[in-house]
Amino acid sequence: MSPKLRRITVYPIKSLASVALSEVAVLPGGALAGDRRFALIDAEGRFVNGKRTAAIHRICAEFNMRKMTVRLGGNEDAAMEFSLIHDQRELGRWFSDALGVVCVFAENAATGFPDDTAAPGPTLISTATLAAVASWFPGLTLDEARRRFRANLEIDEVPPFWEDRLVGPTGSDVPFQIGGVRWLGAAACQRCAVPTRASDTGQATPRFQNTFSARRRESLPPWAPAARFDHFYRLAVNTRLAEGQLPAMLRVGDALRLA
After folding, report:
1. Half-sphere exposure of residue 71: CA atoms within 13 angstroms, side-chain side
2. CA angle, corner 118, sides to 117 and 120, nearest 5?
3. pLDDT tens, 26-52?
4. Ramachandran region of residue 15, left (φ > 0), alpha (ψ -120 to 50) or beta?
5. DSSP label at 6?
6. What pTM was estimated for this model as a whole?
7. Percent helix, strand, coil in the chain (nearest 5)?
8. Which of 32, 36, 87, 154 has a 20 to 30 A CA-CA distance from 9?
9. CA distance 59 to 82
10. CB-CB neighbours of 65 under 10 Å
């Protein structure tokens, strides 16, 4: 068994569409360059995201990361192109109108806007895990499972739920390495409402969380630390950069090794 990095995915605007990359820089804080670099924030300082409103699923976004632009449109709207750097005020207005929530378009190029501030590194999952989860729901494809669970790093050549090996006993992290970058596996990622909905319409899949949790419990592999699963609506691994790790690059094809 030789786990390898199969896919690298970043989400330039938190809660919106993804961009697939062949390589990516790892920032000093552990985030991948460009991942969740931008976010929508309301007047009370809260994120306007998929956890709060299913309407965000209906916004189509196409990114050009070389030009740092985004082309936006809803299901019935003519698309408009904006600079992610120079049109941030205009982007705030566009999203406010589209979502019906007054918000500003915020940027953090140094760390991005991670969901887990204690483990702000990329989330990691295996291709086999996503395929297994897709098989639990009629009509759910592998690509749609990817879009719903929104992991950054996808590994291949391993069985389903192999990544649970990167979750250690309570109070401990699991060291591992991808290419030349050293990481710590912190916890199995607690999921929110986003995976329960179709990625393009926001329509909820009936009893998704209940079905998922029951099948996840049944499928929990012997190498997973059961004590770390206070509930089973968890999938993928939250990570952080190992202490002393210098900024480096990740590339598709890099090997994953346990320390």
Report:
1. 6
2. 55
3. 999 999 999 999 999 999 999 999 999
4. left
5. E
6. 0.95
7. 20, 30, 45
8. 87
9. 14
10. 14
